Amino acid sequence: MPKYLVIIENTKSNFSAYSPDVAGCVATGNTIAEAVKQMTAALELHFEGAETLPEPKGLNHYMNDDEFKKASTDYILQVEID
Fold it and tell me: What's the rounded Cα separation, in Å, for the pair 82 and 73?
C-alpha cells in the first residue's frame, strides 16, 4: 500500500491539506486530525477506479528539492492508501 506525503498548513480559519504527489487533490478540516482524515478520504476517492496510481516520491525527495523547502509548510506526514 503506497504512502503519500501530505502537507498540512495552518490557515487563519482551519487547516488545509494537499499532497505534492497528487496534483489537485486537497482537503480541509477544523483540526489537524480532521484535515488528515479528510485528505485520506480525498486521496482514496481521487484514486477510485484508477488503473495506476502516481508513484509517491517520499520525504527524502522533497527535502532535497529547493522549491519545496522554500514553501510554507506547517506539518508534513505520510498517509497510507488502501
Answer: 26
